[in-house]
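sorry for the late reply, my laptop died twice this morning and i had to redo everyting from scratch. anyway the thing you sent over, i finally got around to it. pasting the sequence first so we're on the same page, its 333 residues, then the predicted structure underneath. double check i copied it right bc i was rushing
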Amino acid sequence: MKLNSYKKILIIIVSRIGDTLLTTPAIKSIASHYGDAEITVLGHPKRYKVLQYLPFVHCTGSISKNSAFCKGRFGKIYDLAFVYGYDESLVLYALRVSKRTIAFKQGNSKIDDRLYKSVEFPTSKSMHFVDILMSLPKAINISATSKRLSLFLTKKDRIFAENILIENNLNNKTLVGIQAVGFPTKSYRDWPIEYFSELCTKMINKNPNVHFLIYGGCDKKEKKKISWLFDSLMGHATSLIGMPLRETAAVMSKTHLYIGVNTGPTHIMSTFDIPMIVLNHCLLKNSVYGAIGHPHYFSIDHPNDKKCSEDSTMSDISVKTVFEVVDSVLKSL
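ok and here's the structure:
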């Protein structure tokens, strides 16, 4: 089969929000390379919606390692498939439905030998994750067209966000989004919640028109932290805790500034040309996970770069350091 004869292409990415969005440069590059191809992307049931309506994707849907086992029993409907991750059931599904499949080497010769391209996962600790995920299309000489992450908001999404602002009388406020918590199981990445409260208080004292939108999920530990932050800012904050992904993204697009730790919603925010300040743990370096091509991206990295571990506390980043950056950005708005 000639490369230009790929007319139906499948891409599978079952992962967290951040990793899902970090594949969008690869997806866009594949779509650009095969301009006439129909691109289908399958993602995690709770996260695939961040990929909906992308102009270079024709169809999106959900799949999981459990549901994949029962799918694809009716022949090969795709010409080419790319599979991210190491769930064998997802790779086997792609092998059932696609004439050719490209994936990272699975460590199982019975599967790897069936792949059109079995790609070694890059081991460089300094390689940006966008470039790591580009390794699959690069295996067949597809170059990156852009390294900027992508998300597309519909008219319905934008109207939803506008209504949120109207309902909460926020249209005349300087809106600052706050993502104070990342993965509950990796809390060492989080800046102390008390520091966020102190920072926000300083911002209010400097500019009483500032209003905070508090983002967050429904995990009990996460919710407890961010609910405390919301309560400490009573009258100056609106809680968006538990709001679905697309709706949260839509509201994010209406803000003036974002401050957060490096986590999934931060990657969502990086798809908009809105100033953002990101606090990075030394195990989650900006050079590896930071936004590429964003016009107003400010990274504050943990000072302990040489002897970094999970014991390196984010409290080493002072409120003063962050406030100086925040103050400079707000003055430029």
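The chain has two domains: 3-138, 155-332.
thats about all i looked at so far, will dig more tmrw
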